[in-house]
Specification:
- Strand 12 and strand 13 form a beta hairpin.
- The longest helix has 16 residues, at about 165-180.
- Helix content is about 40%, strand content about 10%.
- It starts with 10 loop residues before the first helix and ends in a 9-residue tail after the last helix.
- The protein has about 650 residues and is mostly helical.
Length: about 650
């Protein structure tokens, strides 16, 4: 019997289109990816290839050009170990990034070598890694609804960089896709010809004979008869299964199947998936241990599809980077006490990433969770700034953390935050300043806009004639530091500034224009996306958008919710600045001042004024301060290479 693999795109087609570095392995990876992730209609293939063409320079780049150090300790990416940033930087034609995403791909492909990092993935799975991203973001469904190139691009690159080129590739791929050799599964026929047509299916991770039979609407018995030598209990990934009489009427499959356990699953989640009761699954698997369910072990599913007794309202949560018991309790709307009771052996102070937490009574009404959470100390933070962030008093934080030393607050240590969300007494307006070389009490007083006498009163034991470098000075009634008198003092520049610089540079802004924008943002928020205006003012976030019934902050929050994003994240707020500059009233103002292309090429001080007039529109702009911040940022970053934006 002659066989043929499912070929949708050939090497010759890719080369004709201009793709570089084409070889047998990458073409095989492409076609397996198209099949595995069901990128199997002309529209889906066309969108997929055009997006990958832009992101990879027609196959020129299979890994990120930057060194990846910007991703070090990015907990949202799962980068928790030294070296994770470079090791798990962008790989493949759509730039898979981060330890957590690599682990998901390794699980999906059943290939632990994926965790070797960027070199392995970029060579072995340039297409499969892109397909994984495609599936994770449900892009096939978006395309099936008639989405434009712009809509698909927005999922892959929210800033819509390179949109025109993506649209051009999409147009060029039109005839290319229509001429692909096979638009279905691989076909096999009898050697003599004229025999009954059947299909060959390539086994994917997690599949069983029963799920394959369901997929092709044939009976399990018919598949077993067509594959007499196959072992249903040992079905190798990527092996071939013959599918007889596909598409025709089939004898109903027996009401039982086997499920292969995936990472993070529990018996409860499996029961929910197949609409059977937890008790029925436990009865069908008498030797199974629900507390130790090995990944890729098999679970028998009885009477799938029939009515089931409701499963107990308990499920398991797989801990993600940065989560605590409190945030998990909030997510599932259960009390912290209930979670602790359901997990008696758990240590809330040491919650390993990817460990399992039982969630009792999920979905039902619960008692309010205690208003206590934990904050992970970031570089440069003090107890006072943390108290401000959570709108609690400094005294309340000190009371909740009796053993803490406010003068020695280790980075990444944990601070308990009591009564978060509720009304609190105003935090005392006191912060600490770390003395820099050449500073005196007078220059520090000037910087924070307080009197010299007030500083001396707040620091009774200090010697103004002997002020050690890196000693701490308490600043009473501080309203925030004044801009430095020149670009030399850049102690306020931190990693957020680097990320913001990279973002605007990646959009094509000149060094001067980027510094001008950032001078404004520094003046408004100190480059802190969680900044709230002092004394209850309406300003919020990086650009201090105003809160109110028709305020821009409310519009930002609404947009974030519709996109499933965190409105307080730096990434989203930067994207929203770009979004506003390209639409509505802000765009009209910018157009009156010369338009976007002119703005991108401006020098520092020109850009300060244009961004303030078109975007910030402050009542009292204080241009000298914005200029000084912009000059300092320009001196620090101008001419530096740019990595990925985020």
């Amino acid at each position: 019997m002659a066989t043929a693999t499912a070929i949708r795109v050939t090497a010759e087609q890719l080369k004709k289109f201009g793709w570089v570095n084409v070889n047998e392995d990458m073409v095989r990876d492409l076609n397996l990816t198209l099949e595995k992730y069901q990128i199997n209609t002309p529209a889906r293939i066309r969108h997929f290839l055009s997006q990958c063409a832009h992101e990879s320079g027609l196959g020129k780049w299979t890994k990120e050009l930057a060194d990846g150090t910007l991703y070090e300790y990015r907990r949202k990416l799962g980068n928790v170990k030294p070296g994770d940033g470079p090791k798990y930087k962008g790989a493949g034609y759509l730039q898979l990034t981060g330890r957590w995403n690599y682990q998901q791909l390794a699980n999906e492909l059943n290939d632990p070598r994926v965790m070797e990092g960027v070199e392995y993935v970029s060579k072995k799975y340039p297409w499969a890694s892109a397909g994984h991203f495609w599936k994770a973001n449900n892009i096939n469904a978006l395309i099936d609804s008639g989405a434009s190139v712009r809509a698909v691009t927005k999922v892959i690159n929210p800033a819509l960089r390179g949109l025109k080129q993506r649209e051009e590739y999409f147009r060029r791929f039109a005839g290319f896709v229509d001429s692909t050799p096979t638009q279905g599964a691989s076909v096999y026929a009898t050697a003599r010809g004229g025999g009954a047509q059947g299909l060959e299916h390539i086994v994917q991770p997690g599949e069983s004979l029963w799920t394959i039979a369901q997929k092709y609407k044939v009976s399990l018995g018919a598949i077993q008869k067509a594959n007499p030598g196959i072992n249903p209990k040992n079905l190798p990934v990527r092996s071939k299964v013959k599918i007889p009489s596909a598409g025709g009427p089939a004898t109903p499959a027996p009401q039982g199947l086997e499920h292969i356990v995936q990472p993070g699953e529990s018996l409860w989640t499996i029961a929910q998936k197949y609409k059977v009761s937890l008790g029925a699954i436990q009865k069908a698997n008498p030797g199974i241990n629900p507390k130790n369910l090995p990944v890729r072990s098999k679970v028998k599913i009885p009477s799938a599809g029939g009515p089931a007794t409701p499963a107990p309202q308990v499920l398991e949560h797989l801990v993600q980077p940065g989560e605590s018991l409190w945030t998990i309790a909030q997510k599932y709307k259960v009390s912290l006490g209930a979670i602790q009771k359901a997990n008696p052996g758990i240590n809330p102070k040491n919650l390993p990433v990817r460990s399992k937490v039982k969630i009792p009574s999920a979905r039902g009404p619960v008692a309010p969770a205690p208003q206590v959470l934990e904050h992970l100390v970031q570089p440069g933070e003090s107890l006072w700034t943390i108290a401000q962030k959570y709108k609690v008093s400094l005294g309340a934080i000190q009371k909740a953390n009796p053993g803490i030393n406010p003068k020695n607050l280790p980075v990444r240590s944990k601070v308990k935050i009591p009564s978060a969300r509720g009304p609190v007494a105003p935090a005392p307006q006191v912060l600490e300043h770390l003395v820099q070389p050449g500073e005196s009490l007078w220059t520090i007083a000037q910087k924070y806009k307080v009197s010299l006498g007030a500083i001396q009163k707040a620091n009774p034991g200090i010697n103004p004639k002997n002020l050690p470098v890196r000693s701490k000075v308490k600043i009473p009634s501080a309203r925030g530091p004044k801009p430095s008198n020149g670009p030399g003092n850049v102690s306020w520049i931190n990693s957020n500034h680097q990320r913001v610089w990279n973002f605007f540079k990646s959009l094509g802004f000149s060094d001067g224009a980027t510094a001008g924008i950032m001078g404004n943002l520094q003046q408004e928020s100190g480059m802190d996306p969680t900044k709230r205006q002092l004394r209850g003012g309406p300003g919020r976030g990086l650009a201090q958008w105003e809160k109110g019934p028709r305020g821009r902050w409310n519009q930002l929050v609404s947009k974030a919710q519709s996109e499933g994003k965190d409105p307080w994240s730096l990434n989203f707020q930067l994207w929203y600045i770009w979004y506003e500059l390209n639409r509505g009233y802000e765009k009209k103002l910018l157009d009156r001042l010369g338009g976007m292309e002119k703005f991108k090429k401006m020098n520092t001080h020109e850009a300060v004024r244009v961004f303030e007039k078109s975007f910030e529109r402050a009542g009292n702009p204080d241009y000298p301060s914005r200029y000084k911040y912009a000059d300092a940022i320009y001196q620090r970053f101008a001419g530096k290479s740019v990595g990925r934006a985020m």
